[in-house]
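Continuing the series of single-chain predictions for the mutant panel. This is the parent chain; the variants come on the following pages.
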Amino acid sequence: MTDKKSILLALQGGGAHGAFTWGVLDTLLADGRLQFPGISGTSAGALNAVALAHGWAQAEADQTDPAEGARASLANLWDKVMTMGSASEPAARLAKLMVGALPGAMTHVSPYQTNPLNVNPLLSLIEREIDFDRLARLKAPRVFVAATEVETGRAEIFSGKRLTADAVMASACLPQLFQAPEIDGKLYWDGGYSANPALGPLIAMGECSDILVVQINPLKQHGKPTSADQIHDRVNDLNFNASLIAQMRTIALLNTSVETGLARAGVQPVRVHRIDGGTALAGMPAESKVTPNRATVDQLFALGQESARRWLKRHLSAVGERGTVNLRRDYGDPFKPEFHAADAASAGGFDLAPYLWSSPEERARVLDAGSAAKPADATDETQAAEKASATERVETP
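Parent structure:
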């Protein structure tokens, strides 16, 4: 097929719910109408990214269908995860750690005490199953994995020759559970704290303006979290969505700059698309995020397949033409604080409405009335300057 559309993949992390992303990727690869110049992944998203790319590279070397090779590689990885997840303790516990979550993870006991030998089954699995030397030579898809540097809190992106099993471990390292991996003298924790996932490297590629985000942490969660597990789960959602929200607002700002002519020549708007696992997974029990057993993973995989088929039916035609996500509605307007006059009752009784213009016409009338009330000997230039100053004051957020 020669008329494939190009789209960049951005894969969020979210514990065992990464199996949902596996289902999404399996369906997109089987469909065959899309090609993926680049993939960015964090934590469980990083696992999916390197598994897909490994299978793709292996199939190209064997001169077989790369998409089928990628599907087989993903299935193999998750089969190993399910096998470990159904094992007896301590293997099952380590399998839960492997996908980046465990009930009661927020503990006062350090992993340097509970796991002094730093045993990590994921490292052994990734080293055994993924050929990182071959990934470094792969022209497409290029893979970007994000981790958080402990000292600075900034995102570090690993790609090319720097993308190793240790880098994937860094991306999936929850600090309450594992010792921080050290790479080139720097310590790293889970990439979800700083870039979940990182969109900048995909945009910087300059090869494609469409990004498909597979988001598995819900933006909104209805109801009141009351149990310890519910509170812990929602706190994780908020923590691991914060960086994505900030990046989406930046993209909205970039797109506005392009639309208004403020961006540099040649800069293109970013067309954002999303497969929303947060909504699809709302009916799953909270413990599903930390239960990589075969029944749970199979259910998550099926949900991912269904969501991808629905997205292809509704939005494939938009790829290359327009974005299908309302960035300001879903992630917030970068130009406005999250406060509205209608919220006055919940803001200590302070009603903001009297201090805002209700319409441009009202503002113009007030400014004109103010100018007419000036002394007769005031010059036109003085009146114009005062009017401009008043306009600036009322328009400043």
